[in-house]
Design a protein that fits this description.
By secondary structure, the protein is α/β, with parallel strands linked by helices. Helix content is 36%, strand content 23%.
Length: 422
């Protein structure tokens, strides 16, 4: 007897289910398991996946109120972007011009530009302006196949402005098709009013901002909120990072660490020690810390659009992380200073060239592993029974086209929680 469902998508030339491994991310040499089904189909009911298999098997087992013929095209899970700075005002095109003329990121930041330039513009913007700008970025991400996005604060750097950014993220999550997972990044930079007094700003973070964010979380979210720290030369040192993360953990927040973008300060090892969900950037990470990530449940998140945006030659040593048995994910790092990039398709293309991933590994890093990096691996990132029905139909028939082609949007359509949205 057939079961009636809301939707069957069938005739996928290749259906990449990209399964979780043992209830977790794909690790080490196992990265790139696509769970590929030729002539595949997915049955969807009440926004979740009810069945997966060949078209013949699924159509024999289910009757559907709606059917979508994929026309022999590639179908994958919706892409997951696990590291973005989604909310900001203004731009830094002038600083890009400065970098083209030879100025470094650190020199621009030391002269009052960089993150603090965006802080000034973001503090002046209304919440409606921030939401409108963020929605436009989410529209672009969705059009390119991204269905779940992590979004950070960090351009307020005072309590009221950081809470306003969290409110903007919550409004976007409620109103937009894309799911938005918020992260508190009050420790993004030392704001100008605390120049030369980083310790005093850490005091403010620990004694005022984190308690305020803890209260915001209790009122607004059933899931734990992430707290991130930029552990980097010119931002926060290792001792300051530890103090902030330990305070956040006491407040019930989950942890993340920006680390090793430019210099190795030990932030990755600290993140592993404290059980961080992810360590991100990881360009200058030591071999010992790479091995520690491989032994841990912390996901290594590479952001290849950032060194690309900075015209740098060094990228995450991804093959070392995989050799250590680590779980590797990729993300856009979408931000106004170094990587204004809404396309996970471009990130996969960069990952194949500069991280030396295969197309299959890049796809798994942008879906199931990315979902685990933001605590959503049980819900999204793979096409498995019981998970949210987030799917992308591509204008190609072979998954190897992803990463191989770039500079054009290959998305044919997007299904979000069982509804066609693109």
């Amino acid at each position: 007897m057939t079961q009636t469902v809301d939707l069957i998508l069938y005739n996928a030339g290749q259906l990449c289910t990209v399964p979780a491994h043992g209830g977790g991310p794909q690790r080490g040499a196992a990265l790139g398991d696509l769970g590929l089904i030729e002539d595949g189909a997915v049955a969807v009911h009440a926004g979740k996946i009810a069945g997966v298999g060949t078209s013949a098997r699924v159509r024999a087992a289910y009757a559907a109120r709606q059917q979508i013929d994929a026309g022999g095209r590639l179908v994958t899970p919706g892409l997951v972007d696990p590291h973005t700075h989604l909310i900001w005002a203004g731009d830094r095109a002038g600083e890009f011009e400065q970098r083209l003329a030879g100025a470094t990121y650190q020199e621009i930041m030391a002269a009052g530009g960089g993150i603090n330039r965006t802080v000034r513009a973001t503090r002046e913007a209304s919440i409606d302006e921030l939401v409108t700008a963020g929605a436009a970025r989410l529209d672009a991400m969705l059009a390119h196949g991204t269905t779940t996005v992590e979004g950070k604060t960090g351009y307020g750097l005072v309590t009221a402005a950081e809470l306003r950014m969290l409110d903007a993220l919550a409004r976007l999550d409620a109103a937009h098709v894309v799911d938005v997972v918020p992260t508190f990044l009050g420790a993004h930079a030392v704001p100008p009013e605390f120049a030369g007094r980083a310790g005093a700003y850490v005091d403010l973070l620990v004694n005022e901002m984190i308690p305020a964010v803890q209260f915001w979380q209790a009122v607004n979210r059933p899931d734990p909120l992430f707290c991130d720290v930029f552990c980097e030369a010119g931002a926060f040192d290792l001792a300051q990072t530890r103090r902030i993360l330990e305070a956040a953990a006491r407040a019930g927040m989950a942890l993340k660490v920006h680390a090793d973008e430019f210099e190795n300060l030990g932030g990755v090892g600290l993140g592993v020690e404290l059980g961080a969900a992810s360590v991100d950037h990881i360009v200058e990470t030591s071999d010992a810390e790479i091995e520690a990530v491989g032994r841990s449940n912390t996901v290594a998140v590479s952001l290849p659009a950032t060194p690309f945006g900075l015209a740098q030659s060094k990228y995450t040593p991804a093959r070392k992380f995989l050799a250590a048995g680590a779980a590797l994910a990729v993300a856009t790092d979408c931000n106004p200073g170094t990587a204004w990039c809404e396309s996970m398709q471009l990130v996969m293309a960069l990952a194949t060239r500069y991280l030396r991933l295969t197309q299959a590994q890049a796809l798994a890093a942008a879906t199931v592993n990315a979902a685990f990096a933001i605590g959503r691996g049980e819900r999204v990132g793979s096409l498995e029974v019981g998970k949210q029905a987030d799917l992308v139909i591509w204008n190609v028939s072979d998954y190897r086209q992803l990463g191989y082609r770039f500079g054009v949007n290959l998305v044919r359509g997007v299904i979000k929680a069982g509804e066609t949205v693109v």
